[in-house]
């Protein structure tokens, strides 16, 4: 008999990175062969079309605006739930699962699965207003961390290392390889256009305006700062004819024919999947060594380079190496560097960790 596991999530738009991972779980044949997997969504999903393709044995969604009514629905679900595990992605849900488990003597294990960094100093400039409450988080029985940095943050908050499972995120193994441009150095950037804050695209542009040589940057993304970014590029002689805004494309990889490196200048992440995707195509990456995630993906000199957050002199030296063609990488080494995240390896890790928790 399959073991019953339900994922409880909140604040989903239907288009984010969390949704991508949830869809993988819901549609994974190997995972669903072992578990009876359901999805309970506490709040409305803006792009509800996603609900039809996310998989799962059952999907409990809502169209209710009232938080009280949605809370009642969640409580009734938890009272009836007799499965082995709840995987909760939002810290605000954890006190409810804890109370119901205690009052009704439930046997399920509660697993908190965060998809972002767990440090309030890191997140203080986050435009979404995320505040980490470890009083709520510690009500979970176990923890899934998508990066070793998140595991360190949990340990620093007093969580036992034995309660934490680092599972990363899944990506598909790519047959396609994107080779470097032999003529000019072609950089790519795939993220929200945010001049300050988490993505700090403005800091990257400030560095690039000092970069000499034959290079270009193709920017795939949109955001509130797109117009300001375009104006900034247009006003600078070294950027004007080198930075190309391609707009937001759901899947830009088929459009990218050549790339010498993917750039990311984040202040913080959880596990930046754009780095993993680039590496899976054989593209080296240059990323800030921000909390958390890049350290798990980037091995300097092997598949790219890391630099200290906001150390633009260090970044400039790295970029000059690419432009001057003073470095080379083995494409097979780059692709193999993220093999631990390939779907089959991820699924095996997910199954083993759940079984270890509910044994």
UniProtKB/TrEMBL annotation:
InterPro entries: Glyco_trans_1. Residues 178-326 form the Glycosyl transferase family domain. Coiled coil: none annotated. One of its GO terms (molecular function) is glycosyltransferase activity. Gene3D superfamilies: Glycogen Phosphorylase B. It comes from the Bacteria. CDD domains: GT4_GT28_WabH-like. This is Glycosyl transferase family 1 domain-containing protein. It comes from Fructilactobacillus lindneri DSM 20690 = JCM 11027.
